[in-house]
Amino acid sequence: MAAADPATLTGTITIQTSVEDASSPEGFGYEIASANCAIDTATTASTDAAGVVTFAGLALTNDEGADCTYDVTALERDGYDINTSATALTALSAGTTEVVPSTVQLTDSTGVLGSPTRNPETNGNTLAMFCLGGENTAEMRAGRDPFTQRCTLPWDRQSGLGYAAAAGTPFPLEPGSSVIGELTHFNQTIQRGFHNAVLSVTLTFTDTATGETATVTPSYTIAIDETDDVVVSASRCEYPEAGELNAPFACADKVTISGGEVSSFELGGTAVDLQARFGVLAADGTYSEPATTVFTAERTNAEFCLLAEVAETWAVTPTLVSVVNAVEEEPVDPVDPVDPVDPVDPVDPVDPVDPVDPVDPVTPTEAPVTPAAPVTPAAPTTPAGALAQTGADGETATVSALVAAGLIAAAGGLLFAARARRRA
After folding, report:
1. How far apart are CA 66 and CA 69, in angstroms?
2. Is the terminal CB of the chain with fewer CB neighbours within 10 Å at N or C?
3. 87: exposed, middle or buried (C-beta count within 10 Å: 0-12, 13-18, 19+)?
């Protein structure tokens, strides 16, 4: 924000919060207070996702003209410790006021001359104008040849007025007086020219920082007193105060500029005041202070400048404070000490065992096996009591009886042996 009057400015305190080893400093709270200035905005605020909190609209000075001071308190937040000293947040100003370059340009300056009139003569007669040209344009002239009384004068030998934009338009407006337009009085020897005209000026200003424009249209009434050019002595000219501008047969004319209603505005923090009137361009290219009445010599061109008073532009650089936080360390419960273990007596080393000599392998001896002589089966006998059966081939069938008798005898022997063992 910029302004022409520093007393209208307010300040800003911006706090940048960061957290060590953390990526999101959002939600840290702050409170602002002042011992010597009222605070018209909210006194508490929290940081955004970027870790920024701003207290704006703060007064720079109090009613007594003293600088306002502010104290900022960081509100506690679970899980975090503040590493920044509290003294860094006390006795803060709301910013620094300084003059900044204007961003306003004059981008267009045009003028139209019209409404020409003549003043009545001393006897009350109003004479008509002759040879008028350029009405409602940027250059208007009139007047007939004083010797032939005809409209035969070239354009550049007629009297009149012309308006043009200041040289170099568009151009930036610097603090102080700036020329925004140029007016020329073409003072030639004529008859029946105009005495009065209205200059309507259109001025366009642009703030190059924002593109915003402002257009003003001041209007001026210009009166030209055409004096008598037939006197033979400069001392007899109508306006002796014109001094050396008077000459024989060429008395100075008087030009009076009025109007130019107050047209003040502020754009981009730059105040432009168009109350200033026209100054006179000197031979060295400089302009005089604004004047309402100027004498111009006959058969010359007198140049005037339209001036604008431009005030300095002021701005406030906000106060920036950085606050660093750290994640709070959680306390660790102490661990009970472990009782020392009694040392174990060392074990005597065991003597190594002598290796056992390997046993020589035994060579196997094969004994010759003598085959047994075949046994001739005995002739079957029929046990006592067995019934012999004779088959068809005449053989006696006594096998079953023999087997049965053998089994019974064997079983009885085994049974007897078992009983004998139990008794023993």
Report:
1. 9
2. C
3. exposed
In sequence order, which residues have a C-beta less than 8 Å from that of residue 325 and are 6 or more positions away?
A: 17, 18, 19, 20, 25, 28, 77, 80, 81, 82, 83
CB 278 within 8 A of CB 290: yes
CA distance 29 to 290: 57
Largest CA distance in the chain: 212
Q: Write down the number of H helices and E strands in the chain.
A: 1, 26
Backbone angles phi, psi at 236, to 5 degrees: -95, 5
Q: Are 130 and 143 in contact (CB under 8 A)?
A: yes
pLDDT tens-digit map of 224-265: 998 877 778 888 898 999 999 999 888 999 999 988 766 778
Domains of the chain are: 8-107 (2.60.40.10), 172-227+250-328 (no CATH)
The sign one gets for the Cα dihedral 16, 18, 23, 26 is negative
Q: Are 58 and 10 in contact (CB under 8 A)?
A: yes
Residue 175: half-sphere exposure toward Cβ, Cα within 13 Å: 12
Strands 196-207 and 104-117: antiparallel
Strand partners, 200: 112, 219
Tokens coding 347? 């074990």
Amino acid sitting at position 117: T
Q: Where are the beta strands (DSSP E) in 168-212?
A: 171-172, 176-187, 196-207
The span from the CA of 254 to the CA of 238, in Å, is 10
Main-chain dihedrals φ then ψ at residue 103, nearest 5 degrees:
-110, 15
Report the C-alpha dihedral over residues 97, 102, 104, 105, rounded to 10 degrees. 170
Residues constituting the chain: 424
Residue found by looking up tokens 């209603």 in the block? 261
CB neighbourhood size of 158 (10 A): 23
What the block records as the tokens of 293 is 């009445």
Strand boundaries in 136-194, DSSP class E:
139-142, 159-165, 171-172, 176-187
pLDDT one-digit tens code per residue, 259-307: 876 677 888 888 887 754 678 877 787 777 777 888 999 999 988 888 8
- Pairwise CA distance, residues 224 & 118, whole Å: 9
pTM, two decimal places: 0.62
CB neighbours of 243 closer than 8 A, spacing ≥ 6?
none
Q: How many CB atoms lie within 10 A of CB 190?
A: 22
CB of 303 closer than 8 Å to CB of 167: no
